[in-house]
Fold these 3 entries.
Entry 1:
Amino acid sequence: MAYGDALGLDEATARDTAHVWDKVKGRVTPLEWRLQAPLIAEINRLKRQAGAVILAHNYMTPEIFHGVGDYVGDSLGLAKEAARSDAKIIVQAGVHFMAETSKILSPEKTVLIPDLRAGCSLASSITGADVRLIKARRPGLPVVTYVNTTADVKAETDICCTSANAVQVVEWAAREWGVDRVILIPDEYLARNVAAQTTVGIIAWKGRCEVHERFTAQDIADMREAYPGAEILAHPECPEEVLAASDFAGSTAAMSDYVATKKPKQVVLITECSMASNVAGDVPGVEFIGPCNLCPHMKRITLENIRDCLVNRQFEVTVPEDIAARARQAVQRMVDLPPPPIPARYDLVRARHHVDVELI
Ligand code: SF4
């Protein structure tokens, strides 16, 4: 029986969504798909009419990631795409700091987020006033800020980074400023994992990603016992002992790259839950095994509110121009650095030197 008939879809919806079903059918049930497929077809029609593009983060659910995302990827990739795109309207299928970053890089475009409450525990762990205090206590040191921060914080920053380029950015900043120590905020675990890859000393802040901080070395040991053949890949926002117990550590882009090129038989991705579902759609034959943790902020974005966002042009994200101008300089410096030769990985063998981190 044809795909549309088997799932009870009308002919036009079936035609417009068959290619998406091929990617998500292992992760989405036919019952869910009967509701999702018409929404996907409607969103894709609305965005064409509006001249909009949808930037979808790797942590979106598979029906969003594969169904309506024009560009998909990690924070760095999406920020670059926002600047490159000719579209007048950008819909950020991600969290609020990502929409702000798009607006900072593309002030002439309308940037919409489907739910204004889509926040981030890292972004809310620090304010611009906190960064001013840090700079007063450590004058003369460059401030490198993870892109998971508000515009206000980026405006106090010398250069931004993501987990895909953090080591490269820290080493660049130390060279440019002629110092042996760099302020890297706000994720404490990312800072510690970066410090393990470089001889540059790191001054860190006690911010945490509420998704990645929950993973423990015991989780990894339990997975190894239950699935002895599985390869375990961890994100650098996890604690150091989780990375040390894993087979590979890297950004979401590096994890995708690893799975796509090595095609392990069984793999565990120690990161947000939807990442495995999305990568699975692109690499059939690899078995993805839990555990995973959901990001409650990312999960605020749904097909329904993306549709409403396009219909009602809501919710627009703006950044005051004086803040945007300073934040833009920090983001643009990062974007202008040459891309790392391979998606950043956190080499667990190189990490055995003295690690110099001071919490502020
Ligand atoms: S996964 Fe962590 S860093 Fe990403 S948005 Fe959620 S809380 Fe923030």
Entry 2:
Amino acid sequence: MNDRICEWAGCGRQAGRGWDVDGRSYCGPHYFPGLEQAFLAEYAKWDGREPTDKFKNLFSRYAERLYPAGGMPEKLSQGRIEARAAAWKKIPSGLEFIIERHLTAYRWSGPVKTVNQEWRFGLQTKDLLLVRQKDVTPRKLRVFATLARPATPASSSV
Ligand SMILES: [Zn+2]
């Protein structure tokens, strides 16, 4: 039984499971505003160097909630941003980061392409913008693509 109370000022409703933000509990309607407030406070304190894990967690959760039903652009996800985003940069309008992506050209086979995507997040616009994408083609990726090819001949199926 969850008897915690939402910590949003003046709310008093029961807090929900999984709606904790930085140690505070919120009800459903106050989860997003609580998250936004916590992220903006971290952003204000951020010196522009490698952000803390807490910052990455709050930002990725915040950005995820701005896109309903998991519809972040280019199939970005909260987990990917939190774990794999690098080269974070604080800019006047918000922030930028780079993330390595492995794009598959076809659904189950075909070449896998590695790219570095540079993303910009605007605090005012509240959206993620793909600024540029650069190809990365390390040789080991070709090996990976070869190994990933199914061993069964295509003719044996159906
Ligand atoms: Zn509340």
Entry 3:
Amino acid sequence: MRNQWIKILVGTLILSTALIYQNCGSEHSIDYNIDILRSETKVPSFAELNTNIFQQKCNSCHNLESVANPDNNITTDFSNYQSVYTTSLTPGNPEGSPLFTFVYDNLMPASGELVTEEELALIYAWIAAGAPLEGRDGGGDGEPLDGVQLYQTYCAECHFSFESTDRKGRTFSQIQNAILSNQGNMGNLSFLTSEEIQAIVEALSN
Ligand code: HEC
Ligand code: HEC
């Protein structure tokens, strides 16, 4: 815990130095519009974000080699799904996720090409949807999700039909963790959005 605070402190110092330095140069900020960011309905896959944004604008600093080298001050690697998912975001909560807020607040990228509003909207939509490995096309706000139907499609083959399920009363994080830790190959279900998991949780709670 104490170590973590020291890391955060050091990180903040480096960040502020980087920012002061930057502000002397050409303009290096975007005034993002939160309503536009929230309105994106397409959920990109991790691979899309990785290829189009992280590799272009973040991985020059945030990579495994930099993390491994103690001379660098980099503590976070954004080159693979697991490390992005586990270090810099809270699934379902973009506003509580450094991956979103650091860009939104113009703290990141520390140098180089800025993240456009369209790109940040995709990052927002992705975290809001639970940061799934697979993406989804934008659907808009259609009918409410049918948790029973989702359960029958994605869970029944292993956990019995909905009527006789052995997973009653499971919480969002129990399901999310089972998927993330690939219990019984549940990792294949990482495309489920947080809304879909939530609908299943509600169905299982009745
Ligand atoms: C020129 C180097 C550089 C680039 C490019 C860069 N960063 Fe950073 N970033 C840093 C440094 C240095 C820190 C502070 C140390 C750390 O936490 O790794 C940091 C910290 C962060 C943090 C906080 C770490 C945490 O605790 O979760 C986030 C989030 C972040 N960067 C996101 C990004 C994103 C997203 C991009 C690309 C759009 C990006 N950065 C590009 C250098 C960079
Ligand atoms: C391919 C088979 C398979 C599918 C599909 C599957 N699971 Fe699992 N699940 C398992 C296995 C195997 C385990 C680990 C052993 C156990 O708990 O029975 C597990 C563990 C879990 C756990 C963690 C342990 C617990 O009971 O708290 C939860 C929660 C869970 N599954 C819920 C679901 C939900 C909800 C779905 C549908 C979205 C689903 N599973 C789809 C096979 C599967």
